[in-house]
Design a protein that fits this description.
Layout: E1 4-6, E2 15-18, E3 22-32, E4 35-44, E5 56-62, H1 65-74
Antiparallel strand pairs: 1-2, 2-3, 3-4, 4-5
Length: 80
């Protein structure tokens, strides 16, 4: 799944991904040396509104940052 990273907004999460199907604002944390967690808010990319009503929380974890992000984005499949 390809994604485009956009510049962060100080009023939101650290990063924003546009997968084409959904927009995900998220942040990463590393609670243990071998675990990464990505937590974010996702909304359909074609929504066009800034309303929080269509957002849902998504999360993923894995041994690397990339794995955590992929797991989180896997939960966005089907949106949009």
């Amino acid at each position: 799944m390809s994604a485009t990273i956009t510049s962060p907004n100080p009023d939101h999460f650290e990063m924003c991904l546009d997968t084409g199907n959904c927009l995900v604002e998220y942040y990463l944390t590393q609670p243990a040396a071998t675990q990464w967690v990505a937590v974010g808010l996702a909304r359909p990319a074609n929504d066009g509104s800034c309303c929080d009503a269509h957002r849902r929380m998504v999360a993923g974890s894995g041994p690397t940052e990339t794995d955590a992000i992929r797991a989180m984005l896997g939960r966005c499949a089907g949106q949009g």
